Amino acid sequence: MENKITTLFNIKYPLIQAGMVWNSGWRLASAVSNVGGLGLIGAGSMYPEVLREHIQKCKKVTNKPFGVNVPMLYPNIEEIMKIIVDEGVKIVFTSAGNPKTWTPFLKENGITVVHVVSSVKFALKSQEAGVDAVVAEGFEAGGHNGREETTTFTLIPMVKEAVTIPVIAAGGIATGRGMLAAMVLGAEGVQIGSRFVASNESSAHINFKEEVVKTKDGDTHLTLKELAPVRLIKNKFYSELQDLYQQKPTVEQLKEKLGRARAKKGMFEGDLENGELEIGQIAGLIHEIKPAAEIVQEIIEEYNSIKKSFC
């Protein structure tokens, strides 16, 4: 399956495991990398020294390429970037910020840089900033999304038409069939998040993993657009949030309701009532918790099988 993405990252399959907060520690990243994909450690939920520990543990259990995902809106960004360089990480995915801010620094240190975008406008800005590839993520994705609400399969061909660097598709992809569809539309790789939440190696709480497996179509919703749009499973916290919206709340009232560590409470600590349960729409196709290696193999086998049937 050699193409621009496998060559760029020196991996077997053009399949990237997303760096999801509270889900993507060293166990998941190394498991995906060891089987031929690209695993990412999610720095967004880690203090700097915790990130260092995860990088060091990942290096001990895999000799394959892996990377770190860095949401640039988080604090301690300078310290996080220094740790990434000091620990010799060679691949960084950035998101939630201006790619011009850190791309030159990372490139100067020999790091391959990919930026996550939700529009053609930001894909072009990323290319101008010098990134090596972009992730075109539609609003089907779990967690924080762009404000444009452009679907993945609309976004992929538009970004592909606009840029000359490789395009990785994300949002609503959890199967080989979905991977093939994304590639047909112009992507040269896929980034998958939600499917890996329900893996043995995910650092998510078992309550959250089991809730993902139970999730059906229509059970997630994009909300909190006034702060940072986020897709959640509907639960008690979500219902309370919708009741607040009926009162036409101010941004400050929304911030007060959200509070602190709401995502940690839901995904990492397993509070299914009061936590943020961030997952993509594709959760309706996730029916089982299983090892990350099996997930990768199933996706690749289905991809190859369906592709062969059309040839």
From TrEMBL:
A GO MF term: nitronate monooxygenase activity
CDD domains assigned: NPD_like (cd04730)
Keywords: Flavoprotein, FMN, Oxidoreductase
SUPFAM superfamilies referenced in this protein's UniProt entry, alphabetically: Inosine monophosphate dehydrogenase (IMPDH)
Pfam families linked to this entry: NMO
Domain of life: Bacteria
Stated name of the protein: Enoyl-[acyl-carrier protein] reductase II
Organism: Lutibacter flavus
